[in-house]
Specification:
Elements: E1 7-9, E2 15-17, E3 30-34, E4 37-40, H1 50-60, E5 61-65, E6 77-80, E7 82-94, E8 99-102, E9 112-115, E10 124-126, E11 130-142, H2 144-147
Parallel strand pairs: 7-9
Antiparallel strand pairs: 1-7, 2-6, 3-4, 3-5, 5-6, 7-11, 8-9, 8-10, 10-11
Length: about 150
């Protein structure tokens, strides 16, 4: 996916996160912290099911990339740990406060989200009602790693 600035409003409370030189991150990617480096959702190893993948990502959720990191780059990137972002979704109706997690049965999508049933699968909550169904949704994210997130830890 190409760089897409997904931030729409609210404080981003950014942090600077290191990135391995071989890791490619696009602006707008949901990223997690692996030991001491930021990585895009798609680089998480498959944990078996979509729910297990979502929960594994939730537990290490750092935020949304506000800068890109190309192959070979060694500079750290800025990552938003809070704020409201507009993400891609399959057509669905979203109500305020609905829990939102990532999409991916075997590989998580870097910038796509969907409704999830429980807090331990979520990275945020719907920030604007979407009805009738649409293909993008506003989500208030809160980093699990730095801010404890709005969801219970697994």
């Amino acid at each position: 996916m190409s760089d897409v600035m997904r931030w729409r409003y609210g404080d981003t409370n950014p942090v600077t996160a290191p990135v391995d030189s071989a890791t490619v991150i696009e602006i707008g990617d949901l990223v997690y912290l692996e030991v001491d480096d930021a990585r895009p959702a798609s680089s998480q190893a498959d944990l078996g099911t979509e729910a297990q993948n979502q929960e594994g990502f939730h537990d290490k959720f750092l935020g949304v990339a506000m800068q890109a990191s190309r192959n070979g780059d060694i500079a750290p990137i800025r990552v938003a740990t809070t704020g409201v972002f507009e993400f891609i979704t399959a057509p669905a109706t979203y109500e305020l406060g609905n829990l939102v997690g990532l999409v991916g049965a075997t590989t998580l999508a870097d910038q796509d989200v969907k409704l999830v049933a429980t807090e331990n699968l979520a990275v945020g909550r719907v920030a604007k009602r979407l009805n009738p169904a649409g293909t993008s949704v506003l989500v208030e994210i809160v980093s699990t790693v730095l801010r404890g997130g709005p969801q219970a830890m697994a």
